[in-house]
Design goal:
This protein is α/β, with parallel strands linked by helices. The protein folds into three domains: 4-109 and 241-312, FAD/NAD(P)-binding domain (3-Layer(bba) Sandwich), CATH 3.50.50.60; 123-238, 3-Layer(bba) Sandwich (FAD/NAD(P)-binding domain), CATH 3.50.50; 332-423, FAD/NAD-linked reductase, C-terminal dimerisation domain (Enolase-like, domain 1). It has helices at residues 12-25, 45-49, 63-68, 129-138, 154-165, 186-198, 298-312, 385-395, 402-408, 414-419, 422-427, 455-465, and strands at residues 4-8, 30-35, 71-75, 79-83, 88-91, 96-98, 101-104, 108-110, 123-124, 146-150, 169-174, 202-205, 209-215, 218-223, 228-231, 233-236, 240-242, 262-263, 275-277, 282-285, 292-293, 325-330, 333-339, 346-352, 357-364, 367-375. A five-stranded parallel sheet has the order 3-2-1-7-19. Helix 1 (12-25) runs parallel beside helix 7. The chain is globular and about 65 Å long.
Length: 466
């Protein structure tokens, strides 16, 4: 009998694990995917919400794709119980399924809001396919919907940006003193808040919501300071926690609550060697640290899935650890933070609130160990500075004398990046000891398109392809 690999979850950790298993085993094992939603990317939901793509473009697999990979799918089902010792799952509806190896990649779930009115129609999270459809339905026919978002975390602001693109009227309530408290320090957040004010976003920081009432479809959000906000849609974005409730009493070690998660080693194994965990549920290795953490971001989920898949296919591949990072478009202002950005020790900071410029590099000796950025696209993304700092952190490169250079030239990251050969280190490294393969799924089988935008673009693409 072939080895039976069961994957629970339909996000990037799950699909990358499946493709990696097949890259190594060539179809020799049996794979079953169990997911209560169609396989999709949560990071694509804002593009659907903003009207840039249709719902189906958020999907990352269909029947043909899974069929080609030899995967049996059980979409719309979920696991209620794991018997680790007996290698058996109990599914919704009472059926059971045996496994030889198991990957838990069930992601996160929104944390509820324990206040009066939180259960009203039109008061909801924005986390799933169903949530996104519900939000669009709630404002259907409203010329310029009024939206109040409770909470201002990373995922919430991705959705806020999507709604901003549609021209909706937006208000944000944040209990902390400033927006994005788990991504930006106070100085960077102040610049972001000034920018949001210019974009017409109504901010209410340092207060909480005491209750929500409804009159027909319209809602009134009452704040603790007495302010009342009118809304057609209320989005609850007060945080998420790993989906690990069904793992309790299974034999697999789990830390419930926030942040919680399932502890894994550098092969993505739990305390049960034939059960793996990946993505938002996995409390795994951290780059450059002996600590473990849940990094609920898509790049980490992809890496986790590939490492787990390789080891489930009989390889012995270890993970160097994930890098804490957030890169966000705040209604036209680009913001980013990497590594230990909360450290207030040895820092180099340049700030211009009027020019919407903020850069802070955090140092440990001659190593950059954290960074915070805020700025217009021309001051950040177009210069690729954010990507270069990320590469410096990923390779743990010592800057040596270039530390003083950066103190004097904070906008010239390119020279120390090149001089310390960071790009060369990145080019020579792989996660699995082989080049990454392109994902096999394309919507309706269509390949990626590169529209011609000029001679320079054509030259770059032809060189890359050659």
């Amino acid at each position: 009998m072939p080895n039976h690999n069961v994957i629970i979850g339909g996000g990037p950790a799950a699909t990358n694990a499946i493709e990696t298993i097949r890259q190594f085993d060539g179809g020799d094992s049996k794979i079953t995917l169990i997911s209560d939603e169609p396989a999709h990317s949560r990071m694509a939901l804002p593009y659907w919400l903003s009207g840039q793509v249709v719902r189906e473009h958020t999907h990352t697999g269909d029947d043909g794709y899974f069929g080609n990979l030899g995967v049996e799918t059980r979409i719309g089902e979920h696991v209620e119980k794991i018997d680790a010792k007996g290698k058996k799952l109990t599914l919704s509806g009472g059926s059971s399924l045996e496994f030889d190896q198991l990957l838990i990649a069930t992601g996160s779930a929104p944390i509820g809001l324990p206040i009066p009115g939180a259960d009203l129609d039109g008061v909801q999270p924005l986390w799933s396919l169903a949530h996104t459809q519900s939000a669009l339905d709630a404002v259907d026919g409203v010329a310029k919907p009024r939206v109040v978002m409770i909470g201002s975390g990373f995922i919430g602001f991705i959705m806020l940006n999507a709604m901003h693109k549609r021209g909706w009227q937006l208000a944000v309530v944040e209990r902390e003193a400033h927006v994005l408290p788990r991504m930006l320090n106070a100085q960077a957040a102040d610049i972001a808040q000034k920018w949001l004010g210019r974009q017409g976003v109504d901010l209410h920081c340092g207060t909480t919501v005491s209750g929500i009432t409804a009159s027909g479809k319209a809602k009134t959000v009452e704040l603790a300071d007495g302010t009342k906000l009118e809304a057609d849609l209320v989005i609850v974005a007060t945080g998420v926690q790993p989906n690990v409730g069904f793992v309790a009493s299974s034999g697999v070690d789990v830390e419930e609550g926030v942040p919680g998660g399932i502890p894994v080693n550098d092969r993505m194994q739990t305390n049960v060697s034939y059960i793996f965990a990946a993505g938002d549920v996995a409390k795994g290795p951290v780059l450059g640290s002996d600590e473990k953490a849940v990094h609920a971001i898509q790049p980490t989920a992809v890496d986790h899935g590939r490492i787990a898949g390789a080891n489930m296919a009989g390889q012995s591949i270890t993970y160097p650890g994930s890098l804490s990072m957030n890169i966000l478009d705040v209604c036209g202002l680009q913001c980013a933070s990497f590594g230990d950005w909360t450290d207030t020790g040895d820092t180099m900071t340049i700030a211009n609130a009027e020019g919407f410029i903020y850069r802070s590099l955090i140092w440990t000796g001659d190593h950059i160990t954290g960074a915070v950025f805020a700025g217009r696209p021309t001051d950040m993304g177009m210069l690729t500075d954010v990507g270069m700092v990320k590469g410096i952190l990923q390779t743990n490169t010592a800057m040596g004398p270039w530390k003083q250079f950066l103190a004097e030239n904070p906008f010239d990251i390119r020279r120390p990046y090149v001089a310390t050969k960071v790009a060369q280190k990145l080019a020579g490294s792989t996660l699995l000891g082989r080049p990454a393969a392109t994902r096999q799924f394309q919507f309706k089988g269509a390949g990626a398109a590169s529209p011609a935008v000029g001679k320079s673009h054509d030259l770059y693409v032809s060189t890359k392809q050659g």
